[in-house]
Amino acid sequence: MDIIKPIRPYLITRELNPENQETPIHFLRHKITPTEYFYLRNHFEYPELSQQAYFLPVEGEIIQPIIFNYEDILRMPSKQLILPLECAGNKRAYFKPKVYGEQWKDGAISQGLWKGVTVSQLLSMTGLKNTALEVVFEAFDSGKRKDMEGVFHYTRALPIEKALHMDTLIAYELNGEAIPFKHGYPLRLIVPQWYGMASVKWLKRLVVIDHHFKGPFQDIEYNYYPFNDNDKGKTPVTYINVSSMILQPLNYSILENRRQIIEGIAWTGAGIITEVQVSTDGGKLWYPAKLYQDKSQPYSCTIWKYIWQVPSKGEYTIIARAKDSFGRTQPFEAMWNRKGYGYNAVYLIKVRVE
Q1: Domains in the chain, please, with CATH?
Q2: pTM of the model
Q3: Which of 82, 98, 270, 353 makes the best surface tag, with the fewest CB within 10 Å?
């Protein structure tokens, strides 16, 4: 007798080498995205780790250089945060005109429970010189770039103020277990409020510097370029734009002619979500959705729901837009930029009611 196994969904593959995979969006309805469905974003092949990976040197503009042992970090006072990681290129496929790069749709975002020690705690043990301006986070993963000669480690820097933020973590756990290798084991950076490129995986070392870092993943990638043919107006990608998503019903669903629940999530890198509005007539009339927020976790996604009293059979365009406490509202059209970062236009689906 054959045993029928339950069907399990898969990550949505965008590229295999390096591995880039999206979360199936129905898992975003969970407060915590299951680890096996957490999206994957890589610039290079996975690194080969040695014993060196269990030590974290802190160098540069500090008073006392220290090499932290992995086990010592585990014994330090820790902090847990629920927050989403969103790839800066999430929803890149929706830009018009189209842009080059990984054609992410909706699933380059996942929310996890992260545990670790703060960067500020480590730097308080080394001491900072008055000249400290930025903290450089170098990873073990490395590879070649098509536009430059040589081999580069994935490396990013944070302004000293953001590095010392009370919730910027050196994390060692995801969802209650050691961070899986594919997500940065043994140690990775977690930067709340910023897009995921800042949360460096497979940490190799920290270097405090007295100048602005100019690595390719800081000075070339992860910048907004408003024009296709020049670099005028170039600005760095940092805080997550206010955004939302409709998770139920799915786009192009066929629904019954009765009351329907429209639900989704909203998130922002500035403050908190204060409002989500829903339109069922293509944007003519807007109605407030009910928000469900965990006030103990201010960085976490907001779940929202709207009860739609379907007036009649027919085809409908449903739109959701969010607003945050800094007054930022989702635009009808995302700010176009040639590398395709920060897409956050209002979320739109079409349904038919029969």
Answers
A1: 12-221 (3.90.420.10), 243-353 (2.60.40.650)
A2: 0.95
A3: 98
